[in-house]
Amino acid sequence: MAQSVIYAFIGMMWSLILVGGGILTVLVSKISIQGYGDNLDFLIASGIKAIIAIVLVVLWVLVLLKLKNKIFQKQIKF
Amino acid sequence: MQDYIVAGIVTSLIAFFVVFGMVPQLITRLTKKNWAVKDVNRVGGAMVPRPGGPAILAGIILGEVSLYFLLPENNATTKGITALVVTTSLAFVVGFIDDRRVMGGWFKPLALAGAAIPIILLGAYEPNLAFPLFGAVKIPALYLGVIIFMIPITGNTINSIDVMNGIASGFMVIASFSLAIALFVMQNYPVAIMTLPLAFASLAFYKYHKFPSKIFPGDSGALTLGAAYGVIGIVGHVEVIAAIALLPAVINSFLFLSSVKRIVEHRQIKGPTIHTEDHKITTSKEIDAPITLVRLLVASKPLTEKEVGFAIFKLATFSGILAIITAFMVGVQLWPSQ
């Protein structure tokens, strides 16, 4: 029982990686800034991409924490 | 193609037999020097020589150096092999320091972040993260952070799963072969072949590390394996796939950190498991003991050390299969990327 729950958790982590990657690609790869000069455009766009990616990673970890508490509820009540 | 096949066979043989031949001598030397630690899970608590890191490092380095001469000359391959050799060697030094003197919890992550710098200096990376179905996303600024974080994560992840006989090396055998297959699927042959010394060095070491262990890898061995794996993920542009193959170990670190809530050296915390009277492993009754993968595996019923190892290898095989499926999915693009 405990082992099948771990397999399920791995499967969920995998799905979250695929979904998170999809969101990152769809959202972030489209971002481009114009009008501040080539270097500054690149720098601003990179900064925005980095912030979005970090926010997504934090959200990913929070979702995982919630899932962990739900999935392992019985197991972690030692 | 013939060049790649020859290089793959030669480098695999070199990595395997260097480790296979070196470990018995290392065991003798370590035993003479009394560099041994107690195997807490063994009945009677036998003393086991440690660290096996020097043999693992020698196998990986000699395998990679042979590739340098055997693979067709290519700037990216040369940079990749150099980055792998330098970063892995630095990670070994970090682990060896920790083997000899107990350092604080932050020492290894910070020192391993430093070990990742040669990858940046050599330019052995492309600032793209490739995702299955959706293509790659170009993140030049953020990718430097990915490099700096990836080596400490893979190094410490393998180190944190090195809790019982044979687990770290056996896990790395499964993860690295899965990664090599994924790279072959993606037709990234040079980096797929660069993965073989890691896989075969781990396999040779597993022969001595499996239950009952004749040698422990130590921090130097575990960090060497983890760092080499991380560099291959970066150099081969398969960071996501490499992370998927490592998921059981990632879960172990995730459970540990989310229960302890701070970065701490594992020696400083209460043991997550205890022994039953018939010397099986069961969960600790301490409320503040950390949650780990092993603790979850033995939560429903006590298991022997061998059974725990087998359960972790089955999980590693499952994530290895997911990693290979992901490699197939990278070839399919649902969304046009930039």
What's the assembly state of these chains? heterodimer
Instruction: Give the termini distance of chain B in whole angstroms.
Output: 31 Å
Total DSSP helices of chain B:
13
Strand content of chain A: under 5%
Quick summary of this structure?
Chain A is mostly helical.
Q: How would you describe this structure to a colleague?
A:
In chain A, 78% of the residues lie in helices and 0% in strands. Chain A has 78 residues and is an all-alpha fold. Chain B has one domain (2-261, 306-330). Chain B has 13 helices and six strands. Chain B has helices at 2-33, 53-70, 75-100, 107-115, 117-122, 140-161, 167-185, 189-209, 218-235, 239-245, 247-260, 293-297, 305-330; strands at 36-38, 47-49, 128-131, 135-138, 273-275, 281-283. The longest helix of chain B is centred in the first third of the chain and has 32 residues, at 2-33. The mean pLDDT of chain B is 90. The A-B interface holds A 1-3, 5-7, 9-11, 13-14, 17-18, 21-22, 24-26, 28-30, 42-43, 46-47, 49-50, 53-54, 64-65, 68, 72, 75-76, 78 and B 129, 131-142, 145, 240, 243-244, 247-248, 250-251, 254-255, 258, 283-285, 287, 289, 291, 293, 295-297, 299-300, 311, 314-315, 318-319, 322, 326, 329, 335, 337-338.
Main traits of this protein?
heterodimer, A: 78 residues, mainly alpha, B: 338 residues, two-stranded antiparallel sheet, two-stranded antiparallel ribbon, 13 helices, 66% helix, globular
Helix and strand arrangement:
The complex is a heterodimer of chains A (78) and B (338).
Chain A: H1 2-28, H2 38-71
Helix pairs in contact in A: 1-2
Chain B: H1 2-33, E1 36-38, E2 47-49, H2 53-70, H3 75-100, H4 107-115, H5 117-122, E3 128-131, E4 135-138, H6 140-161, H7 167-185, H8 189-209, H9 218-235, H10 239-245, H11 247-260, E5 273-275, E6 281-283, H12 293-297, H13 305-330
Antiparallel strand pairs in B: 1-2, 3-4, 5-6
Helix pairs in contact in B: 1-2, 1-8, 2-3, 2-8, 2-9, 3-4, 3-9, 4-6, 6-9, 6-11, 7-8, 7-9, 7-13, 8-9, 9-10, 10-13
